[in-house]
Design goal:
It is built from 19 helices and 14 strands. With about 450 residues, the protein is of the alpha/beta class. It has a six-stranded parallel beta sheet with strand order 3-2-1-4-5-6, with helices on both faces. A six-stranded parallel beta sheet has the order 11-10-9-12-13-14. The chain has a two-stranded parallel sheet with strand order 7-8. Helix 13 links the parallel strand 9 and strand 10. Helix 1 packs across helix 3. It is globular. It starts with a strand and ends with a helix. It binds nicotinamide-adenine-dinucleotide and uridine-5'-diphosphate-glucose (UPG). Uridine-5'-diphosphate-glucose binds next to helix 9 and helix 11.
């Protein structure tokens, strides 16, 4: 079977390389010619563990090809995946599907025979229907089926997530299209992983519902963390206590600087806005979006508080710039808000990230980069852990204590061993675990409790 993938970003490149590794003949198209040239030369332009090896292996065995011209990959394809970006379009939060439409318009006149067009891009509910109309008018003689095949991989573990997903969702209206898609995922289904064949709207909604649910879980635990700080208590233990309930589950309960990345923020906004266009209010997810936005405003204050409320003479070391560990992606990373604010308020800001510094250099101004963590920490008054890179957890407490000027760490990922650090004279401010200082007691103000008093 011949497969074409349009877009060689985090999703398209991983999907293309993994399908090629399953043995299919895959051609990836990208309009960015420099990317295509780099990929042909064996250079993978994004950081994603394991991807370089698969791209190298499948290019060498002749299963994977890269082109920039549509006519070189569309006419003979059995399945065409669209995996281009769908960022937020406007203030209302709706998704910009112009790249999906542009790719569809470009490929339509080149179609020959029976072709499945599968959207891997995350697209608003109803996009499949819209593409149906587009292809009926732009490729009236072709036999085309539009399928929704949402992708659930995470950056940083994208290859593993693609090859060993929890499930595959195929939203198809035509049986022949569903069978073609199923054949592509046979190597996954043969390992007992569920492949759900549903209608297209169900598949489109499932993608947004999954991301919105996970994002809401994070927004929820972050507010529990705020309560722990005020009332005493430790959000990590609360997460354990509730997460051991199998109905809740222990994943996505890490309190932190708020959810970021290229998906949760934009997909929650798009879920709310596309539902509203259909007359349905998503009050729960709207609240999660607002809670997440509000959260970042407090983070800088937390750093200032660690320096007695004034950063003007402080040297701040920011450890981690990517939106999470395992990626070089800065999209909607908490660092995009934090770093400029710290540059504005502090005497000096130094930053470090194990893989995202090349991207960061093009993004931030007024920041000095430490090539090593030690260099970044040298003479710092406060270190802010923004990304959960495991190497930060391994930092030698003696080195930390000996390198910094004032030994304060604001650990926005709750990942440092505070007891050991504090034993070495480094104080750690975490999330959701401030010791209770005259913690206020919440009194019942209404209901039976009050009546009994
Ligand atoms: N990043 C993730 O972890 C992830 C996971 C699941 C789903 N998704 C969804 O998948 C889609 C792609 O996300 P991404 O992070 O891979 O995007 P990306 O920005 O990393 O990559 C998109 C690629 O498409 C190319 N492109 C854009 N328009 C094109 C066109 N008309 N023709 C050919 N190439 C074109 C760009 O040059 C770029 O290389 C989005 O809808 C996203 O929501 C992303
Ligand atoms: O307990 C947690 C888990 C995550 N996060 C944050 O949530 C964001 C997203 O993390 P994660 O989901 O691991 O990364 P993504 O690569 O953005 O993956 C999400 O978005 C993808 C794109 O749609 C989906 O395919 C994945 O299933 C979905 O997990 C990041 O800012 C994390 O730091 C937390 O704060 N606490």
């Amino acid at each position: 079977m011949k497969v074409t993938v349009i877009g060689t970003g985090y999703v398209g490149l991983v999907a293309g390389a993994c399908f090629a590794d399953f043995g299919f003949d895959v051609t990836c198209i990208d309009k960015d010619e420099s990317k295509v040239a780099a990929l042909r030369a064996g250079t993978v332009p994004i950081y994603e563990p394991g991807l370089t090896e698969i791209v190298g292996r499948t290019q060498t065995n002749g299963n994977l090809h890269f082109v920039s011209a549509y006519q070189d990959a569309i006419p003979n394809a059995d399945v065409i995946f669209i995996a281009v970006g769908t960022p937020t379009k406007d203030e209302g939060g709706s998704a910009d599907i112009s790249a999906v439409i542009a790719a569809s318009e470009e490929l339509a006149p080149l179609l020959r025979g029976c072709t499945v067009i599968a959207t891997k891009s995350t697209v608003p509910i109803g996009t499949g229907q819209r593409l149906d109309a587009l292809f009926r008018s732009a490729a009236p003689d072709a036999d085309v089926a539009i399928v929704s095949n949402p992708e659930f991989l995470r950056e940083g573990s994208a290859v593993r997530d693609f090859v060993e997903p929890d499930r595959v969702v195929i939203g198809a209206e035509a049986d022949w299209a569903a069978s073609t898609m199923r054949a592509l995922y046979r190597p996954i289904e043969d390992r007992g992983i569920p492949v759900l064949v549903v209608d297209r709207a169900t598949a489109e909604i499932s993608k947004y519902a999954a991301n919105s649910f996970l994002a809401t879980k994070i927004a929820f635990i972050n507010e529990v963390a705020d309560l722990c700080e005020q009332a005493g208590g430790d959000v990590r233990s609360v997460a354990d206590a509730i997460g051991l309930d199998t109905r809740i589950g222990n994943q996505f309960l890490k309190a932190g600087p708020g959810f970021g990345g290229s998906c949760f923020p934009k997909d929650t906004r798009a879920f709310v806005s596309s539902s509203e266009r259909l007359g349905i209010r998503q009050r729960v997810v709207s609240a999660a979006v607002h809670a997440n936005e509000a959260r970042k405003l407090h983070l800088v204050q937390r750093v200032a508080d660690a320096c007695d409320g004034d950063l003007s003479n402080a040297r701040v070391a920011v450890l981690g710039l990517a939106f999470k560990a395992g990626t070089d992606d800065l999209r909607e990373s908490p660092s995009l808000f934090m770093v400029p604010e710290l540059v504005r308020l502090a005497d000096e800001v130094r930053a470090h990230d194990p893989v995202a510094m090349p991207v960061a250099r093009d993004t931030f101004t007024g920041v000095h980069y430490g090539e090593t963590v030690d260099e970044c920490l040298d003479g710092a008054d406060v270190a802010v852990i923004l990304t959960d890179w495991p190497e930060y957890r391994e930092l030698d407490p003696k080195m930390l204590a000996g390198t910094m000027r004032r030994n304060v760490i604001v650990d926005l990922r709750n990942m440092m061993d505070a007891d050991t650090l504090e034993a070495h004279g480094v104080s750690v401010v975490g999330i959701g675990r401030r010791e209770p200082v005259d913690a206020p007691v919440a009194h019942e103000t209404s209901g039976l409790g009050q009546a009994a008093e």
